[in-house]
Amino acid sequence: MALSLYSFTLLCFFFLFHFFTINAYPVHHNYPFHRHHHPHFASHNYRDALTKSILFFEGQRSGSLPSNQRITWRRNSGLSDGAAMHVDLVGGYYDAGDNVKFGFPMAFTTTMLSWSVIEFGGLMKSELPNAKEAIRWATDYLLKATAHPDTIYVQVGDANKDHACWERPEDMDTPRSVFKVDKNSPGSDVAAETAAALASASLVFRRSDPTYSNLLVTRAIRVFEFADKYRAPYSNGLRKVVCPFYCSFSGYQDELLWGAAWLHKATRNPAFLNYIQVNGELLGAADFDNFFGWDNKHVGARILLSKAFLVQNVQSLHDYKGHADNFICSLIPGAPFSSTKYTPGGLLFKMGDSNMQYVTSTSFLLLAYAKYLTTAHKFVDCGGITVTPNRLRALAKRQVDYLLGDNPLKMSYMVGYGPRYPQRIHHRGASLPSVASHPAKIQCSPGFSFMKSQSPNPNVLVGAVVGGPDQNDRFPDQRPDYEQSEPATYINAPLVGSLAYLAHSFGQL
């Protein structure tokens, strides 16, 4: 049958469209990528998820709650924190489902919330003030914790005694012991991460509150100098206190590089660029280490420094694009250097305990790096396979979609999002009756009857993202199972940026 010129042109158009679509989003047998995951189709209400991911932080607040507190089943707590050492350490966040304030993951949470706003805050619209409020709740506390030179208060609460009780934060009567690092017992990791948090947050507030921004960056410089001058991991001096909870397993070199990278970005002072150039390799810049989280910052530092090369054209940081590319290639299924495991349902899987923190942090890095590559008109070469920025976005979207419910269990791993989500999260405040419904104190041991109960939590911690399913996509939704059922601030923090990007890209913001 002869084709008219019009029909032939139409046929060519469809062929080319199909060809380029397939090549833009290659499909691999071990990377499920069904029609409803197509990057041009929004399978979720990312705006709703964004709102909830930020709201979660209000449920984690310690201290005196403001009049506009939206998670209303929470009340004031920890109002005498710091009194044991005659310092004011009221405020900040509980890291997860317990009532301890751990400075190391709190600082990382702050850095990732700030990075989320730095990259994607312009897309957040009405949620931007809420995101900035979440950052400020942390930085106000970190300023208190670093008020004395060469000293950082890094923990409030005795974790072992806290974990021996199941109490609401409003009731807690376990010791609010205060622990610090200083010249005699240094902690370069926690100090440099705190410097990164303060420096990154200074960029968030640079236009809206320049005085506060200046205070943050000035403090960040002082804290980083302390981290660099007195070098040791904080778990050396505080082993009995911080281990096994937030032990520093990866050493402190990654935090020094990460802290310097953020200070370079915040100050544009050549001294920090020089520091990175002189110390980068010594601090493990090229280590083939592809995990990014509260303990290990190597990959994050590589991606951040590659931005300076790709976007600001800082030629001396050229090598960091290669380091960042190595990380990307490790994630791409079917690529020659791929080393990443996925569950049968398509979720990145690295760890049995709180794997979702790895998923959210990696997804954020994929979207941030895609943004930098697009600006610079670059791509990633994985052993002859060209990986485009769109490919990175598609992989990140797939991870976020899985988290929000596109998975074998059809379960959203964000509390309060979607029709089906975890009902028995490992979280003291959420699992015990609120002060409003049960004004009488609930003692340490009796609280465990609530922890062991099969009943759903009486309080919904909206926006909390739990540790997530196992390597076979299974999730029992049991409260004692903290590995899978506990939420944490550092799971949510990078997700905020990813959700802002996705909500914007699908016209939801």
Automatic annotation (TrEMBL):
Residues 46-498 form the Glycoside hydrolase family domain. GO terms for biological process: cellulose catabolic process. One of its GO terms (molecular function) is cellulase activity. It catalyses: Endohydrolysis of (1->4)-beta-D-glucosidic linkages in cellulose, lichenin and cereal beta-D-glucans. It comes from the Eukaryota. The keyword Magnesium does not apply. The active site is at 426, 477, 486. Keywords: Carbohydrate metabolism, Cellulose degradation, Glycosidase, Hydrolase, Polysaccharide degradation, Signal. Pfam families: Glyco_hydro_9. Residues 1-24 form the signal peptide. Its EC number is 3.2.1.4. The keyword Hydrolase applies. Belongs to the glycosyl hydrolase 9 (cellulase E) family. This is Endoglucanase. It comes from Quercus lobata (Valley oak).
